[in-house]
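Regression check, nicotinamide-adenine-dinucleotide case 285:
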Amino acid sequence: MVVLDGKEVSNKVRASLIPRIEKFHEKVGRPPHLTVVIVGDDKASHVYVRNKKIACEKLGMTSSIHALPDTATQNELNTLLRELNNDAKVDGILVQFPLPKHLSSDEVLSVVSPEKDADGLTFKSLGYFFAGKPIVRPCTPEGVMTILKHYNIEVEGKRVVVVGRSNIVGKPMAHMLTEANATVTICHSKTKNLSQYTKEADLVVVAAGKAGLLGKEDFKKDAVVIDVGMHGSGQGGKLCGDVRFEELNGWVAAATPVPGGVGPMTITTLLQNTCLLAEKRARLF
Ligand code: NAD
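Current build output:
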């Protein structure tokens, strides 16, 4: 079984961004800039936000963090987002979810401009994307496509099952694979006899958010398995996915591990999207 190494792919993509960042800097007089907005004091979210800032700076991009208190109102948040939409020095905006309960993520997804939406998940961005005219593509499924390309895994004409139908992963994943000419079936929480579908597939992308949901018996021999799931409380408190990875060796052709599979690609695609948005606004190509 080939272990699809998301860290390796991620390093390669990040290295390819450096000359683009340098070129942008040279032409525009500053590097691409990602702004992250966080509300409240959820510790894990603050760690994610800091990691994104460090990742930007390692590549020579810049990043700023707008931390609003738990007491921030929707109006204050919307006002900040509109200011950032209009700030010429900001290329990408990312709002860290989840928000405190009194705030609406739908409003955030309506207010952030698609020209600056580094995550590719606002309603307008998704509209352009599903219409086949993406400005940028949603990070996690785009990261999966990059892994497949890196390992020369052809999807055209293949039978693919995507498990999950969220706006963040399942739906855009199924759309990207359809655009790549696969024949795609979407399974979800109301699918009866999930295994019957996954066992027929050449490629299965699992994004159900259920730790250890699928194992060897759910895949056909020599299938490719991509595990998007991420859970902090697997056996012994270790990070694990939706797939029982340890069962797969000797049965499937290739699979992503958790950690070290899809996860590293999500943040890398965020950096890539920020570069792309910066380049598009500066009309560098
Ligand atoms: P979600 O809860 O919004 O959606 C889960 C989807 O799975 C739903 O559409 C649901 O219908 C389906 N589902 C749930 N139980 C099922 C079952 N038993 N059988 C079939 N389908 C089932 O979650 P999400 O935001 O799409 O995330 C999915 C998983 O991916 C989570 O574990 C999340 O942590 C992870 N994730 C990882 C990354 C990453 O960077 N690696 C990024 C985003 C999400």
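Comparison notes: Residues 29-114 form a domain with the Rossmann fold fold (CATH 3.40.50.10860). Residues 9 and 150 are 7 Å apart (CA to CA). No diff flagged against the previous build.
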